[in-house]
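Colleagues,

For the teaching module next term, I've prepared a clean inverse folding example: a structure given as tokens, and then the sequence designed for it. I'd like students to try predicting residues themselves before seeing the answer, so please don't circulate the second half yet.
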């Protein structure tokens, strides 16, 4: 079956591809399984140089691969370059720390020696989304491979060029053949692969709906699964927050990748006493952003991923406006070619409106006013999601207290939510299960094995 990758900013076709037939997918999986037998035999120290070289290769090819990201999914070129650089940095963090993070642990029990050791599982199958085409795929693959597994990547179809560029990165870095392979299966073959004896674990980053489906398939076949799913992160502004600092943070938090980030700030929960001043400055800054050609170095907001994304935003906004929400800036797609939607601030929003209840994957910021901190926390938690979030206040102890009360995988005080390879990343509730990054991510797809030694006789 043929399909095309399309530049969402221009509507132009980039390339025509074809799905692999099931036999081709299974043969590739078989090769990854054979590669595992060798790769598992290396010590972590022996694997490290491959990753050091991968970081070099990512930086050497940064220009071309950033262009490819921008062409396939529409983010500004400056963001695409930063994404590749972040991948190189994350790879170095694992190269520097993996030996320590995967070291055996000793436990005192009733025998002579009790050792906890972390052994690879085999072929891990990753299914990834388009919004950070390099970052999402490598954020899984680097720790997965470092732990001694081999990996198959099924990327989102619209970033198939990136999927093969990532495979190329491993090849260029000199990794043994088939340790990392990109496949282009149809959905039926994805299911067959999960069911097969070859695949020992599944990692999906994507929507909650697809997460339920893939999680159920993995569960049916008793495969370890990590699910990184949707989010609707609260951005909580307390009355003592600095207006300028917080408004600027709100713009960055909402607008990264044109708002198409799982950890974008999606619900702006603002305490009454500061709401007018915050809303006014935030709206001013959002309205001043430069939207347009993502290849232009000065563009701050690129294209949305496709027409369906624009239509979904329009529907979420229209339903909320019909229930009383008011648009302060933006609100209508930009005329002309490409999937462009302007930064949009909406006030008088509340639960029951789609902009508040659902994940809004684009540049719309609903502002919800609350009386006090307690109401802010209650509202932050009144969501099916629990990925990230932030709280903005001059009182750091109060910020930490709020951070501890919000139900999410990560919470930031006076910073937008961001991922960092040294810290765990993942969600609770419908935002998923399991963790990526840090030593927690490194240990998701390992056999945590106890070796227990007793004296003889
Ligand atoms: P998606 O529609 O769920 O797709 C994710 C991946 O699943 C793609 O590779 C897609 O392939 C594949 N897929 C979809 N339906 C499938 C099926 N029935 N069987 C097998 N594979 C299937 O998500 P998306 O639109 O790419 O990404 C946006 C979503 O991802 C948002 O909800 C966002 O919050 C979430 N996300 C979460 C995180 C996190 O870390 N928590 C990070 C980034 C994004 P095709 O392209 O071929 O359909």
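(Answer key — instructors only)
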């Amino acid at each position: 079956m043929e399909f095309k990758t399309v530049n969402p900013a221009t509507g132009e076709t980039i390339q025509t591809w074809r799905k692999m037939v099931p036999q081709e997918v299974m043969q590739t999986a078989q090769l990854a399984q054979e590669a595992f037998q060798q790769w598992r035999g290396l010590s972590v120290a022996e694997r490290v140089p491959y990753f050091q070289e991968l970081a070099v290769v990512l930086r050497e090819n940064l220009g071309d691969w950033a262009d490819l990201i921008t062409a396939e999914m529409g983010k500004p070129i400056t963001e695409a370059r930063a994404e590749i650089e972040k991948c190189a940095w994350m790879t170095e963090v694992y190269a520097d720390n993996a030996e320590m993070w995967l070291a055996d642990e000793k436990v005192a029990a009733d025998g002579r020696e009790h050792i906890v050791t972390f052994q690879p599982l085999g072929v891990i199958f990753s299914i990834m989304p388009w919004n950070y085409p390099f970052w999402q795929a490598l954020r899984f693959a680097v720790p997965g491979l470092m732990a001694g597994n081999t990996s198959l990547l099924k990327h989102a179809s619209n970033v198939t060029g990136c999927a093969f560029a990532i495979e190329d990165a491993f090849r260029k870095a000199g990794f043994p053949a088939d340790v990392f392979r990109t496949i282009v299966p149809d959905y039926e073959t994805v299911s067959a692969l999960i069911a097969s004896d070859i695949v020992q674990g599944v990692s999906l980053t994507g929507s909650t709906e697809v997460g339920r489906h893939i999680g159920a398939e993995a569960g049916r076949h008793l495969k370890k699964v990590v699910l990184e799913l949707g989010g609707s992160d609260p951005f909580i502004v307390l009355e003592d927050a600095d207006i300028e600092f917080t408004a600027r943070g709100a713009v960055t938090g909402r607008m990264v990748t044109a708002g198409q980030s799982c950890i974008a700030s999606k619900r702006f929960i603002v305490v009454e006493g500061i709401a007018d001043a915050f809303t006014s400055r935030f709206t001013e800054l959002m309205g001043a952003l430069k939207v347009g050609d993502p290849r232009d170095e000065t563009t701050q907001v690129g294209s949305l991923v496709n027409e369906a994304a624009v239509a979904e935003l329009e529907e979420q906004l229209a339903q909320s406006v019909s229930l009383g929400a008011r648009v302060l800036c933006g609100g209508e797609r930009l005329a002309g070619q490409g999937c462009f939607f302007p930064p949009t601030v909406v006030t008088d929003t509340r639960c029951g409106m789609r902009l508040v209840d659902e994940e809004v994957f684009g540049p719309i910021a609903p502002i919800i006013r609350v009386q006090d901190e307690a109401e802010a926390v209650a509202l932050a938690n009144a969501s099916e999601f629990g990925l990230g979030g932030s709280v903005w206040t001059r009182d750091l102890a109060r910020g930490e207290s709020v951070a501890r009360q919000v139900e999410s995988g990560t919470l930031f005080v006076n910073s937008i939510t961001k991922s960092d390879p040294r810290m765990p990343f993942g969600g609770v509730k419908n935002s998923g299960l399991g963790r990526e990054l840090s030593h927690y991510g490194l240990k998701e797809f390992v056999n945590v094995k106890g070796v227990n030694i007793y004296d003889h006789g």
